[in-house]
Amino acid sequence: MQLDKEVFLFLNNLGSSEWDTFWMFLTNKWSAIPLYALLLLLSYKHFGTKKLLFVVITVIVLITATDQLSNFFKYGIQRLRPCYDPEVSPIMRLVKGYCGGKFGYFSAHAANTSALALFFTILLRPYYKFFGIFLIVWAIFVSYSRIYIGVHFPLDVLSGIGVGLLFGWLFAKLYIFAVYKYGI
């Protein structure tokens, strides 16, 4: 835990006021709406209306699962966010005074974006060979933004990424199985 705090302080203090607006924009869930629209458009283009509806339902269940599991862990483990940790908060950068809820293990942002990135990477890989790289890089940037702005420790983010990748893979495999098994 001490190493996690030290790595957090190093990464968090690399920030500068010139970059704060960029990272706050990136961490905002609404900033990804154009990406979500593109993912819907590409899914419609390659899968049609019926499968697109199934993609949307699968994604809703996927994000609900990762998000609620994150809440379960946050309130079960009750690890303080850096901005509430008395050992760390006086010497960290808290961008724009934003802190979030009291507990932070594990990052729902990291879990949700990683899950979406891997889910769509698997689904769209036959059509767009390198699009998955863009999605994974996007998820990593969003995940890092949580450290940058001061609301998650690196272990919170890495755990969130791990959970997200597991769930993204699982839901993609379930989607593919359901499409082929039941002819959706």
Brief sketch in words of this structure:
With 184 residues, the chain is an all-alpha fold. It has six helices and no strands. It has helices at 2-12, 17-27, 33-77, 108-124, 131-148, 154-182.
Low-confidence stretches: none
Tell me the Rg in angstroms. Answer: 17 Å
CATH architecture of the domain at 58-184: Up-down Bundle
> Tell me, what is the CATH class of the domain at 58-184?
Mainly Alpha
- Helix/strand-derived category reads mainly alpha
Q: What is the fold-level CATH name, i.e. the topology of the domain at 58-184?
A: Vanadium-containing Chloroperoxidase, domain 1
Query: So what's the overall shape?
Result: elongated
What level of helicity do the residues show?
over 70%
Helix/strand order, N-terminal first: HHHHHH
Largest sheet: none
Write out the CATH superfamily name of the domain at 58-184.
Phosphatidic acid phosphatase type 2/haloperoxidase
End-to-end Cα distance, whole Å, is 47 Å
Mean pLDDT comes to 94
Number of strands: 0
Number of helices: 6
Percentage of β-strand residues: under 5%
Provide structural commentary.
This protein is 71% helix and 0% strand. The protein is mainly α and 184 residues long. The protein has a domain at 58-184: Phosphatidic acid phosphatase type 2/haloperoxidase (Vanadium-containing Chloroperoxidase, domain 1), CATH 1.20.144. It is elongated. The model has no long low-confidence stretch (mean pLDDT 94).
